[in-house]
Design a protein that fits this description.
Blueprint (H helix, E strand, L loop, with lengths): L5 H13 L4 H14 L13 H5 L28 E8 L7 E11 L2 E11 L3 E14 L3 E14 L3 E15 L4 E8 L5 E2 L4 E2 L3 E10 L3 E10 L5 E11 L2 E8 L4 E8 L4 E10 L4 E11 L5
């Protein structure tokens, strides 16, 4: 099986591969993987920037920066400079579940293009996604984005497979302070493996509030078409242009998040932490972004 139940296979891999080295370590890994097997499957991790994670880990790009564009490709249109960003972290605080994402955004006239790569897993189990982005604006009122996503999954001693997915997102400025965001992920219903197991198809919409570049807040709804929906929310405060703090949360599963950013010169460094209430685990992420100052 190469779809939603792949986490259970991961737990057995760890049991076989590293069981003889450290029994206590095995118990910890297997317990946590089995605990999350009903919550997370293949390609269900959210490749957010650390600050967007700190805002409640929504798939819409509330912070508007860097790696938040992996799902919300329309947010690329808000960055009119060439920029590079990268994020690293360990899922649930386990070094065996490494996740990373890297993105470059390139403005071109009235449009934006981008390229990204994200990975999750280890040498036994590895997810890789290669993304191509396009985005633009219509009269400063509506921005849009699309992505073509190449998914590849590898399981040692089992095999590998791949497929293509398509994502869409859009933003509408309702007023000076409010913006509506919507997105559809994997609208072409991609599937993996001989059993043709479907990848997550996610619909999301949210309302963003922004006040003088100091205060941001949002409320969003996310719906995987095969599971119950979730509500996410968060807010951030930037007392200075180069410093900001964020908190957030969500339901189904219950999460609590927090983090901050510092932005000296053309660099931006972010830190975010997320706590999963149902399993008592947490994850950290660190992001770094660089903007070429003369590229408008």
């Amino acid at each position: 099986m190469l779809g939603r139940g792949v986490i259970v296979y991961m737990s057995s891999c760890f049991l076989v591969r590293i069981g003889q080295r450290n029994l206590l370590f095995i118990k910890r890994v297997v317990y946590n993987l089995l605990s999350i097997s009903l919550l997370f499957g293949a390609f269900e991790t959210i490749p957010n920037s650390a600050y967007n994670l700190a805002l409640g880990n929504p798939i819409i790009n509330v912070s508007g920066m860097g790696n938040g564009a992996f799902y919300d490709s329309g947010s690329l249109s808000k960055n009119r400079k060439i920029h590079f960003s990268g994020t690293v972290g360990n899922k649930f605080g386990l070094s065996e579940l490494k996740e990373s994402s890297w993105l470059i955004g390139l403005p071109y006239g009235q449009y934006n293009t981008g390229f990204g790569v994200r990975t999750f897993g280890n040498h036994l189990y590895q997810e890789t996604v290669i993304n191509f982005f396009g985005a633009g604006q219509l009269k400063n009122k509506l921005s849009w984005g699309c992505s073509i996503n190449y998914y590849h999954i590898f399981i040692q001693d089992y095999g590998n497979t791949s497929t293509l997915g398509i994502g869409l997102s859009w933003r509408s400025n309702l007023s000076k302070n409010f913006t509506f965001v919507g997105l559809l992920n994997n609208i072409n219903h991609p599937s993996l493996g001989k059993d043709q197991e479907a990848l997550p198809q996610i619909i999301s919409s949210g309302l963003l509030y922004r006040f003088e570049n100091k205060i941001k807040a949002y409320l969003s709804w996310e719906q995987d078409i095969e599971y119950s929906g979730s509500i996410k929310f968060g807010c951030s405060y930037s007392p200075l242009p180069y410093l900001g703090f964020a908190i957030g949360g969500g339901s189904n599963p219950g999460i609590t998040t927090a983090g901050f950013f510092i932005s000296p010169s053309t660099f931006r460094i972010e830190y975010g932490i997320i706590s999963y209430e149902s399993i008592g685990r947490y994850s950290h992420k660190i992001s770094i972004s660089y903007f070429i100052p003369f590229s408008y």
